[in-house]
């Protein structure tokens, strides 16, 4: 579990590791993005974090999350859904997209987000995508603090242990995820669903291991050729490569290093 204390552009995070605490000093990355992010943190740090978004609770499996979603929002359950099929998971994600604007305003919106997290959790399991990160977020509580900001061209070449980064949290999918999940080879659907990192939120993650993104496979590069130029121009991107897809903008740098096994996050104190 973690606490932060701020002194100008330096602060601390205190991690709970079993029965002891470990304090790590951090220095804010000297970018406009990092400073904007930290201003948001100073306004929300006393609000309890969202336990689902921060992965402090075990997510429901998609089978249960889908049943809860249908029961809560009065949708008919499709008995033919295969929860281990990429295209069926795409249909469930499309259901989330279509209903998000209306259902996110209801008192039961946590069920909506549990459903969304469950879809992605199963997709990651199918794709064998396991990146070691501690996520911290406030869910819908941080909505008024969100702002549009082109974050994609600020990604790092690699993710480093204990460094703090800004995660991609858009409604749709990134291009490689779109391709890997067998979405249709259709320009209209691609433009509807694919979004780069264009939203600055309070949410962040702490890397608990080093991670170097691997280059895209040739099959994807060939497929993406039909979409890349127009899509990058639409969002004023200089490029879109494997670092944009799998890395993230740097927010803060640790001044000490530790092995992060069993680290857990609790709260922020400013």
Topology, please?
Elements: E1 4-7, E2 10-17, E3 20-28, H1 32-44, H2 62-73, H3 86-103, H4 109-127, E4 133-136, E5 147-148, E6 164-165, H5 175-180, H6 187-193, E7 199-200, E8 204-207, H7 218-224, H8 228-234, H9 242-246, E9 250-254, E10 263-264
Antiparallel strand pairs: 1-2, 2-3, 2-10, 3-9, 4-8, 5-7, 6-8, 6-9
Helix pairs in contact: 2-4, 3-4
How far apart lie the N and C ends? 15 Å
> What's the count of strands?
10
- Can you tell me the residue ranges where pLDDT is under 50 for at least 5 consecutive residues? none
Number of domains: 2
Helix content: 25-40%
Global outline? globular
Structural account:
With 270 residues, the protein is an alpha+beta fold. The protein has two domains: 1-49 and 139-270, no CATH class; 51-136, no CATH class. It is built from nine helices and ten strands. The chain has helices at 32-44, 62-73, 86-103, 109-127, 175-180, 187-193, 218-224, 228-234, 242-246, and strands at 4-7, 10-17, 20-28, 133-136, 147-148, 164-165, 199-200, 204-207, 250-254, 263-264. A hairpin with a 2-residue loop joins β1 (4-7) and β2.
